[in-house]
Amino acid sequence: MSLAELEARIAAMDWTAAAAALDRDGHAVLPRLLSPEGCREAAAMFAEEARFRRRIVMERHGYGQGVYQYFAAPLPDTVAALREALYRPLAAVANGWAERLGRAVRFPDTHAAYIARCHAAGQTRPTPLMLRYGPGDYNCLHQDLYGEEVFPIQAVVLLSRPGTDFTGGEFALVEQRPRRQSKVEILPLAEGDAALFAVRDRPARGARGWYTAQMRHGVSPVRSGERTTLGIIFHDAA
Ligand SMILES: O=C(O)CCC(=O)C(=O)O
Ligand SMILES: [Fe+2]
């Protein structure tokens, strides 16, 4: 899949619907962001050790079970293109959230400008990553925070075919509202779909205006086969 095709696919997504879903629910799905060929090409990068700066065996840290790897700089072209092209429409949503939550922070229009802010804050290491889960593997509920600088929305692209390449392994979001019990939501994803979701918190509408809902995400145990994902986090790490 060429960069031009990737950029065309991102531009062709229904961003009005995605922004509305993010505002309403704190998450959205971009269907078929990557073609099947694009998914195969991306998944093949997992085995190319030189592309990554750090490999994490999740059970060693109590994060779950499975392996993930952070890309080294410079990012592969497709990953950099995804990060830059997804950023722009998400920055508009993120600014709306900041306004509703009464936060002073505003996000610039381009990812290059935002990454300069991360670097100035000492967050210089790239965070885009690939994750691979085999039978029994799972990802505990967590938040991807790597310092003070946080871009409030992130993306994950499913590179495998549910039901064919793997079973189980569902992407889950848990939302904690003040003084309420937690709500869980499973996002059904097809091959190439991207889930967009709140990193840490989001504004949710209540009877008396906006309040802050805390969000965490994770993956339920894979029952069979192999599940590979590409995670796009927009802030860099300290
Ligand atoms: O594998 C997944 O679906 C979730 C990956 C994840 O936690 C992330 O991209 O931050
Ligand atoms: Fe994550």
Automatic annotation (TrEMBL):
Signal peptide: none annotated. The keyword Transferase does not apply. InterPro entries: DUF2086 (IPR018655), Oxoglu/Fe-dep_dioxygenase_dom (IPR005123). The keyword Protease does not apply. It comes from the Bacteria. Residues 124-237 form the Fe2OG dioxygenase domain. It holds the Pfam family Oxygenase-NA. Gene3D superfamilies: q2cbj1_9rhob like domain. Keywords: Iron, Metal-binding, Oxidoreductase. One of its GO terms (molecular function) is oxidoreductase activity. Belongs to the iron/ascorbate-dependent oxidoreductase family. This is Fe2OG dioxygenase domain-containing protein. It comes from Stella humosa.
